[in-house]
Specification:
The complex is a heterodimer of chains A (about 180) and B (about 240). Chain A is about 75% helix and about 0% strand. Chain A is built from eight helices and no strands. The N and C termini of chain A lie far apart (about 40 Å). Chain B has about 240 residues and is of the alpha/beta class. Chain B folds into three domains: about 40-85, no CATH class; about 105-185, Arc Repressor Mutant, subunit A (Orthogonal Bundle); about 185-235, DNA Methylphosphotriester Repair Domain (3-Layer(aba) Sandwich). In chain B, strand 1 and strand 2 (about 55-60) form a beta hairpin. In chain B, helix 6 (about 125-130) packs across helix 7. The longest helix of chain B is centred in the N-terminal third of the chain and has 18 residues, at about 70-85. The chains are: A mainly alpha (about 180), B alpha/beta (about 240).
Chain lengths: ~180, ~240
């Protein structure tokens, strides 16, 4: 963790190489969270870029009592959650204007119908729980870190994850999958 | 949590994706080439106010308000504009004084004011809303002479074909304002007070940046233990 903090200090000083190292270390994980939350790769890339831009510009105000990863995930989930809000507004406006709501575009890379099942089941999970599930399963983040990332209590993290999983289990069982 | 089949499926589903490596140089380029036109706009604006509200915003040199009340309103408007142009405010609370606007224009401006932050509507939508569906061109003219641009968001009205349309401060800036609104979050909670605010609320301004968390709706925030602010009342807008 100290190594990462030293890296952040170099980013704050405008060291491009340090920033590249940071992006290489976290980029794939950030992309996975964003892709799973937003459903499309293009939107995910835009979200990750915006999150990284914010971290790059705010590196100077980085608070070293935080793990770098906690901060990166906080910024990324902030961007993704706002994007989800915007989509909700767009869908509501389109519905009010009488247009048909477009089916959510879930990415189904290569293999399985199983991925689509998981994606469909996840769509039934409330947004906050879905965000926590994504962070937990992409990275194996623990409850305490999830709580810091979303600014909620550890008990709330536990209850949200449990509720999310039970909704998923029910949805997948319904489809004969689990 | 107990590891079971659902866990396994989720672990498979959330495997890290590749392809983010080339992002660093792109981000650095974006940071260096960031468009600062909007941020610089405030220095070129003259805001004037009556004791009732902001009456005119135009390019020019800032003059002193005629009364104490007007001076306070000018100062407040400039602060709010400053935050708005930096992506730290999603609504204006400073009052506007549209007494000098003709009736038709006042209606058009009120309709434009109903378009929520981050959204856009065609000129025809405004025409229909004020009950003159045929008056699209007149709507365009009325908006073009908007006495209080930015605060009354005439930049959220676009051409029906998706084109940006004209703007008092230039089309480029209109596009830039829409871009700022596309990337500014609307609802933020403060992690130490667990209160949810609209971005720009005075309560939230006291919260340090690392204590802010974005939410997609008031219900989402409530579901994890946040309550809506009583000052900015996010429940009424989202």
């Amino acid at each position: 963790m100290d190594r990462e903090r030293a890296l952040m200090r170099r980013v704050a000083q405008g060291d491009g190489r340090a920033f590249t190292d940071l992006v290489e270390a976290y980029g794939p994980k950030l992309m996975a969270v964003a892709t799973r939350l937003l459903g499309s790769r293009a939107d995910a890339e835009d979200a990750v870029q915006r999150a990284l831009l914010q971290t790059y510009q705010a590196a100077r105000s980085y608070e070293p009592r935080w793990a770098v990863s906690t901060w990166l995930y906080r910024v990324l989930t902030n961007v993704c959650v706002d994007e989800l809000r915007r989509r909700g507004v767009r869908a509501a406006h389109a519905a009010a204007a009488g247009a048909e709501e477009p089916a959510p575009a879930f990415e189904a890379p290569g293999d399985a119908g199983r991925r689509i099942d998981v994606a469909r089941a996840l769509a039934k999970v409330p947004r906050e729980a879905r965000v926590l599930l994504a962070l937990h399963y992409v990275n194996g983040l623990g409850n305490a870190e999830l709580a810091r990332i979303r600014g909620i209590s550890i008990n709330t993290v536990k209850s949200q994850l449990a509720r999310g999983k039970s909704i998923l289990r029910a949805a997948l069982t319904e489809g004969g999958q689990a | 949590m107990i590891r079971d089949r659902v866990d396994q499926m989720l672990s498979d589903y959330f495997k890290p994706a590749g392809g983010a490596v080339a992002l660093a140089p792109q981000v650095i380029r974006r940071a260096e080439g960031a468009d600062r036109d909007a941020e610089a706009l405030l220095d070129r604006l003259a805001v004037s106010a009556t004791a009732e509200g902001v009456r005119l915003i135009r390019l020019g040199r800032q003059a002193r308000g005629e009364s104490g009340a007007a001076r306070r309103l000018i100062e407040r408007a400039r602060e709010e504009l400053h935050d708005y142009l930096r992506g730290r405010r999603v609504y204006f609370s400073v009052p506007v004084d549209l007494h000098e606007a003709p009736e038709f224009q006042a209606k058009v401006l009120r309709a434009a004011g109903d378009i929520p932050f981050g959204q856009a509507r065609p000129y025809a939508w405004v025409a229909k809303r004020i009950g003159h569906p045929g008056a699209v061109r007149a709507v365009g003219t009325a908006l073009g002479k908007n006495p209080v641009p930015l605060i009354v968001p005439c930049h959220r009205v676009l051409k029906s074909d998706g084109g940006v349309g004209g703007y008092i401060f230039g089309t480029r800036l209109k596009g830039r304002l829409l871009e700022i609104e596309r990337t500014t979050p609307v609802l933020e909670g403060c992690t130490s007070t667990r209160i949810l605010c609209r971005v720009g609320c005075s309560h939230l301004r006291r919260a340090r940046p690392e204590n802010r968390v974005v939410f997609a709706s008031v219900e989402d925030a409530r579901s994890v233990g946040y309550r809506p602010c009583r000052v900015c009342r996010p429940a009424q807008v989202a």
